[in-house]
Amino acid sequence: MLLFGAESLVFQFSIKNLKIKIYSTIILPVDLYGCESWSFTFREEGRQRMFENRVLRGIFGSKRDEVNGEWRKTTNEELNDQYSSPNIVRVIKSRRMRWSEHVARMGESGDVHRVLVGKPEGKIPLGRPKRRWEDNIKVDIQEVGCEAMDWIDLVHDRDR
After folding, report:
1. Residues 6+ apart with CB under 8 A from 3
2. pLDDT one-digit tens code per residue, 38-52
3. What is the pTM of this model?
4. Which letter does DSSP use for residue 71 in this model?
5. What are the tens digits of pLDDT across the range 114-152?
6. What phi and psi, each to the nearest 5 degrees, are found at residue 146?
7. Domain extents for the chain?
8. 150: which DSSP letter?
9. Where are the alpha helices (DSSP H) in 1-160?
10. Displacement of CA 1 from its chain's centroid (Å)
């Protein structure tokens, strides 16, 4: 009987590993395709986190509560402990920072630089301006702790 329990534990462990590999090699790259150029709002960050937590709950399943023995939904903290890779928002921000280096080195004459950093012409609509890609880069740099410098100057200093 003990042998059967050990075999089922190994089988469950390998299925979880397989599901994590499928998630990280197929689902995550499809979801993150082109994320370097996204203009990300806080609402979209929350949606990406919800997507990742939903997929991870499907992989790891629900848990049995030790106190009353009932099944319960796995909390976000437990999911983060079980899934050792960085969360999806951190991956998006790191890819966007890496892409910003390429954009800054292209120079102002490059088409990509004009599209991502340039100012649109024409009438500006009423209300708060929409969050641009360059605004996201500035917020990411502030989170890292290099808020005193301009992001283009920061990119040219590779040691920093």
Report:
1. none
2. 888 889 999 999 999
3. 0.73
4. E
5. 777 777 778 878 888 778 888 888 888 778 776 666 767
6. -115, 50
7. 2-28+41-85, 92-119+129-156
8. -
9. 2-22, 28-31, 42-60, 76-82, 88-106, 111-117, 133-144, 151-156
10. 44
